[in-house]
Amino acid sequence: MMTVDLNSDLGESFGPWPMGDDVAMLDIVTSANIACGFHAGDPAGILKVLRAAAARGVVVGAHVGYRDLVGFGRRNMDPSSEELVGDTIYQIGALQGLAKAAGTTVRYVKPHGALYNTISNDARQAGDVIAAIKAVDPSLILMALAGAPIVKQARAAGLTVVCEAFADRAYNADGSLVSRRAPGAVIHDPDQVAERMLRLATEGRITTIDGDDIELEAQTICVHGDTPTAVALAQRLREAFTGRGIRLAAFAEVKDGAARG
């Protein structure tokens, strides 16, 4: 049976300012990328989401980002290697401590926003994030943009990499994501999202914003938790997959099962 992982970015509320519906998303997704306090999230809120994920058996990962609360981690930055390695280690370590208190374990790392996009092609910053992950725990899985150079770079460095596609984002012909500043960058129609992701899961292809088809290797699919239609999109996507006989399971658990088998 074909298996697909659904992930979402959660734990991004800050104090009295809510961001998305984490509890509803945790009832739908199989993996949760939890903010680590640099681009969003506060310790009490992060701990609450981790406990909710643990209660539902949802696998959690560290959603590390630039030190950019004001810009929600979506502004391009150029930290030194020393800074980026330290910041990444700090965020993973903080989430590991909170996860232990919540009765769960950090299984993977997914960079956020501008950091995610930058390291997809910037070998220096990618190397810093890779080095930080290896320094903390080389068994942590890196979630990276499908088709990006960082996938090969991280695998060559000895990390396990899971390739990610985005259900609610438009793609360029080179496999990169269309800038959020461009019209049509974010897709809000649940039926359109479901149709695109079913085709990706079964054929390994997706239609770009220009109408061309490209091939993508993806083991996990992200629905952003901070969009107004996030829960409806995720629910529609889950229904579409199960309706086609596609099993939903966390990629970390699937890899563990394969290793044990």
TrEMBL record:
GO terms for biological process: carbohydrate metabolic process. InterPro entries: Glyco_hydro/deAcase_b/a-brl, LamB/YcsF/PxpA-like. GO terms for molecular function: 5-oxoprolinase (ATP-hydrolyzing) activity; ATP binding. It catalyses: 5-oxo-L-proline + ATP + 2 H2O = L-glutamate + ADP + phosphate + H(+). Forms a complex composed of PxpA, PxpB and PxpC. PANTHER family: 5-OXOPROLINASE SUBUNIT A, UNCHARACTERIZED PROTEIN YBGL-RELATED. This is 5-oxoprolinase subunit A.
